[in-house]
Amino acid sequence: MFNLFQNNIIRARLDLVQKTFWVTLKYGFWMLIALSFLLIVIDITTSYWVRDRIYTDINKLPNYRTAVVLGTAKYYTTGAPNLYYKYRIETARDLIKQGKVQQLWVSGDNKTPYYNEPRVMANDLLRQGVQAVQIQQDFAGYRTLDSVIRADKVFRLPPFVVVSQRFHCERAMFIAKTRNIDSVCFVAKYPEGHFKVRIREFFARAGMVLDYILDRQPETLEKGKEVR
């Protein structure tokens, strides 16, 4: 009798565990669907909302005084060249050469002496024929939000152009538009076959919306100096 009672308890517990598992799986599945739908809505809405600030034809881009070039690493950790970086530098050079802007503001990460995106960008622009007097650097552009807001609040730039790939341009323009910053973005070439970065952008845009809701500001609003 005791063994039968014990077996019934065990069976009841197993049934409860099984039911809990399937209920959790069911709700988890629908939460995943809802989250995916939300990410897609944010992505599409962002692209549509800032479409008037995105330029792909250099001949249609109005003349501006300054272009802010958003930083990224020149090389991947594997040592392979980063084409996102390469195309941004080439696009910035073309804006100068065609007289669309007079000055380039390179903004990137320089938290340690061993990683200096603005310095690397400046050196490569010099090699591309851009004059030193046409290049300024922001060493505290740790994130897209930092680079865009600092250009306006810290360096007091007049209306400016941002340079990056289209997906990045759209996120930068969302930040600018929600903070009443007068800027547009000129699209640099997108490397073919680079799908992983575009997938990560879904989550980056969700973070962008959260930053807006929480009114997050740049890590620093000081002008900052190069870390050597």
Automatic annotation (TrEMBL):
- Keyword Cell wall biogenesis/degradation listed? The answer is no
**Protein task:** Participates in the barrier function of the cell envelope.
Bilayer-crossing residues are: 27-50
Q: Which organism is it from?
A: Haemophilus parahaemolyticus
Q: Where in the cell is it found?
A: Cell inner membrane
Main localization of the protein described in the UniProt heading? membrane
Q: What is this protein called in UniProt?
A: DUF218 domain-containing protein
Asked if Ion transport is a keyword of the record, the answer is no
Q: Domain (DUF218): give its ranges.
A: 67-188
Protein's membrane topology: Single-pass membrane protein
Assigned keywords, A-Z: Cell inner membrane, Cell membrane, Membrane, Transmembrane, Transmembrane helix
Any GO CC annotation of this UniProt entry: plasma membrane
Q: Name one Pfam family in it.
A: DUF218
